[in-house]
Design a protein that fits this description.
The protein is built from 17 helices and twelve strands. Helix 1 crosses helix 2 and helix 3 packs antiparallel against helix 5. It is 49% helix and 13% strand. Strand 9 and strand 10 form a beta hairpin. The longest helix has 34 residues. The chain has three domains: 143 residues, no CATH class; 99 residues, Rossmann fold; 190 residues, no CATH class. The radius of gyration is 30 Å and the shape is flat. The protein is an alpha/beta fold.
Length: 476
């Protein structure tokens, strides 16, 4: 019954996408030759022939099938489906252009179709398919939260991992995956119930339970000590028409960002990996170089005025320097505008030995220094640190050597924070965690940023930083 429903929904997606692909040919023609009739970037238009409507839908659907656009996506965020739609539209548009160019004599009577029309077609198709899939997914989620289109599943394992996956599925009812019962991994003392659900036997009676209950899927959540039995379980489950998922017996803070890959056929689980490896790091570094260079040009005059005012505020250097730690434990000299009166040699030595910068000692803050801190303008010289590759525009704030050593010994997972460059601003700072805020709380925000990094998140944090500059109650 469930598989028949899946075929119905699949047919709904396919049919609606075919209609949208056909409509996109008409829409692209109307936009190009009616709405943009006077727009002729390459001289007189030779022909206004429309993309053959009968060619678009077959090409789109074939490419979508090859790229597995219509695979079940109950437990996926729509962002992943959008990426699949974008990939499908790009490949399909290129395929359609190639097809109509190679066989133009047979398909379009020798006419070379307008290039801009294909670009508009791709954009209209992308918008249309995205809206279509989003609306249909929302309708399906609405139905599932009301008990419709539900897929009952069994959870093998009554331990902490099995209980956690049960709670997770219940709190995400929009997936339509409904835990119905447990199968105990403990053959000697199986519980009668777990998480409010019945326990239908043990591993020894697995086949009997599958025959009688007929779940649509199974989650294997065995403890690590029983990992050797998973292969035997998979062989047994292979005789039944059920979807099988394996939940590793790991802390969920590691599973949350786990990635899977294979090396020459050997499956590999990556439980801690910086999102800035590979292309992510290249894109972020390019963003830092361009952003910091532009900021230095735009803020050159304010920085010059700040430097003059710092020089006039009393004896001492314009810049404050201190050794901090950035990615991979590298030390660098962080730059700030000096905001305090200069210490004596004895006082400076005592502060250096403490390994911490006493920002809270407001008695030594100068008048201009108080203004620079309140507006965060004292941080601007760090743009030079960004250009030199020592820092990033956005990232965890850099810590002193003593703070890193203390956190590494006492806070589990802290070193993931040290996999990325320190930043001028960050997720913690835009949430008001500055000054005397707890380092432990800031670390939670920093780890959230690292695990969810994207270029858009960096851009959003910068926008929030600009918004907070003149009204940050945590700045001192």
């Amino acid at each position: 019954m469930l598989r028949e429903r899946h075929q119905i929904f699949l047919s709904l997606f396919v049919a609606s996408d075919a209609v949208i692909a056909t409509a996109a040919t008409w829409g692209a023609w109307w936009v190009r030759f009616r709405l943009l009739e006077g727009f002729k970037p390459y001289g007189q238009l030779v022909d206004s022939t429309m993309i053959p409507f009968w060619s678009a839908a077959p090409v789109i659907l074939i490419v979508a099938a090859l790229l597995r656009l219509y695979k079940p996506r109950r437990d996926e965020h729509f962002v992943r489906e959008f990426k699949a739609i974008l990939r499908t539209v790009v490949v399909a548009s290129i395929s359609l252009v190639t097809l109509l160019t190679l066989f133009r004599n047979e398909l379009t009577g020798g006419v070379v179709l307008n290039n801009l029309q294909f670009v508009i077609f791709g954009l209209v198709l992308l918008v249309g398919m995205t809206a279509n899939h989003y609306i249909l997914r929302r309708i399906l989620r609405w139905a599932r939260t009301r008990g419709l289109n539900i897929r009952p599943v069994a959870i093998i394992g009554t331990g902490p991992t099995g209980q956690q996956i049960c709670r997770t599925l219940r709190s995400n009812s929009w997936t339509g995956i409904h835990p119905s019962f447990f199968i105990s991994h403990d053959a000697e003392n199986p519980p009668e119930a777990c998480e409010g659900l019945p326990v239908r036997g043990t591993l020894e009676s697995l086949e009997t339970v599958l025959h009688s209950e007929s779940p649509s899927g199974v989650f294997i959540a065995l403890p690590n000590a029983m990992a050797s039995q998973i292969e035997e379980l998979m062989a047994t489950l292979g005789n039944y028409p059920v979807d099988v998922r394996v939940v590793p017996d790991l802390s969920f803070r590691f599973i949350m960002n786990m990635k899977t890959s294979d090396l020459d056929g050997v499956p590999i689980l990556s439980v801690r990996e910086s999102p800035l490896n590979g292309w992510g790091g290249i894109v972020k570094r390019g963003f830092d170089i361009v952003g910091s260079a532009m900021a230095l040009v735009i803020l050159a005059i304010p920085m010059l005025l700040a430097a003059i005012l710092v020089r006039c505020s009393g004896p001492g250097p314009i810049f404050f320097r201190q050794q901090r730690h950035t990615a991979n434990g590298r030390e660098f000299s962080i730059l700030k505008f000096r905001t305090m009166r200069v210490l004596t040699a004895q006082q400076a030595q005592a502060e250096e030995e403490s390994g911490q910068w006493q920002r809270g000692d407001t008695a030594r803050v100068t008048g201009i220094g108080r203004f620079l801190r309140r507006t965060s303008l004292d941080e601007l010289p760090q743009l030079f640190n960004v250009l030199r590759g020592e820092m990033s525009l956005v990232g965890p704030r850099p810590l002193a050597a003593g703070e890193v050593a203390d956190a590494r010994d006492n806070w589990n997972g802290f070193m993931l924070r040290q996999n990325v460059r320190s930043g001028i601003t960050g997720w913690a700072q835009v949430h008001g965690l500055r000054g005397e805020a707890s380092n432990r709380i800031r670390m939670i925000y920093d780890l959230h940023y690292i695990r969810n990094w994207s270029v858009w998140l960096d851009f959003w944090i910068i926008m929030l930083t600009v918004k907070r500059i003149f009204r940050d109650p945590s700045a001192e």
